[in-house]
TrEMBL record:
Taxonomic path: Bacteria, Bacillati, Cyanobacteriota, Cyanophyceae, Spirulinales
NCBIfam families: PRK00702.1 (NF001924), rpiA (TIGR00021)
Range of residues in the leader sequence: none
Gene: rpiA
GO BP terms, alphabetized: D-ribose metabolic process; pentose-phosphate shunt, non-oxidative branch
E.C. code: 5.3.1.6
Reactions mediated catalytically: aldehydo-D-ribose 5-phosphate = D-ribulose 5-phosphate
The protein's name in its UniProt record: Ribose-5-phosphate isomerase A
Cited function: Catalyzes the reversible conversion of ribose-5-phosphate to ribulose 5-phosphate.
HAMAP family tied to this protein: Rib_5P_isom_A
Length: 234
């Protein structure tokens, strides 16, 4: 396992390890995207290598997850080849008290929603800074859109009361492109009072592939914190 010295990274590593420790031999595992889940993928690989875990197979939620899984020796499969996912481990950008989430900070929410929704148990790995009373308080809501529909979708989102902005990549040299070849619009809503309705409304706009609201999908939330200088997981 990577030796981390930064307390935040150590805490994320602990959360990832805790999630990975809940995976049993023979499981089909949804592999999420992001910096916290990356530690879970690494830990699953370590458990396989040590012989503590056997015969798992992963379903990656992104190109990033696929690359990491290969790096750590986790065999992969596709949804065409399986009829169940036992457990999925994935990060989140916000978590509300009802375990509803905003995801998509890594522009992978479309595949993540497919995989995480299919899992018998979806374990979310976050730090305590991601816990909010109401979704949309700290993080913009990502919406994946096919490129030719970006302008009409942005106008439609404005009519819904949102402030949309096209997600740009590093140094703003061009837009972020998803694994599906689409673009991401990040939306500020003053208040997301009814996430279940907003999730449906956004997905109904022609040209929208998927948005980052995950309502009623998560089962377990593992929260990392630094207490008295030490990382803890609850
Ligand atoms: C990617 C995601 C990530 O899971 C989310 O952004 C959290 O990532 P991190 O663990 O790096 O904070 O939804 O689309």
């Amino acid at each position: 396992m990577a030796v981390e010295t930064d307390p935040v990274k150590i805490m994320k590593q602990e959360v990832g390890k805790t999630a990975a420790s809940r995976v049993s031999s023979g499981a089909i595992v949804g592999l999420g995207t992001g910096s916290t889940t990356a530690y879970a993928i690494e830990s699953l690989g370590n458990r396989l290598q040590s012989g503590d875990l056997k015969d798992i197979v992963g379903v990656p939620t992104s190109f990033q997850a696929e690359v990491l899984a290969k790096q750590y020796g986790i065999p992969l499969t596709t949804l065409d080849a399986i009829d169940r996912i036992d457990v999925a481990i994935d990060g989140a950008d916000e978590v509300d008290p009802q375990k509803n989430l905003i995801k998509g900070g890594g522009a992978a929410h479309t595949r993540e929603k497919v995989v995480d929704s299919l899992a018998a148990e979806f374990i979310v790995v976050v730090d305590s800074g991601k816990l909010v009373d109401r979704l949309g308080s700290t993080f913009l809501l990502p919406v994946e859109v096919i490129p030719m529909a970006v302008t009409p979708v942005m106008r439609a989102i404005e009519k819904l009361g949102g402030k949309p902005e096209l997600r740009m990549g590093i140094k703003k040299a061009g837009p972020v492109v998803t694994d599906q070849g689409n673009l991401v619009i990040d939306v500020k809503f003053e208040a997301i009072d009814n996430p279940i309705e907003l999730e449906k409304t956004l997905n109904n706009l022609p040209g929208v592939l998927e948005n980052g609201l995950f309502v009623g999908v998560a089962n377990t939330i593992l929260v990392g914190e630094i207490k008295d200088g030490k990382p803890t997981v609850r």
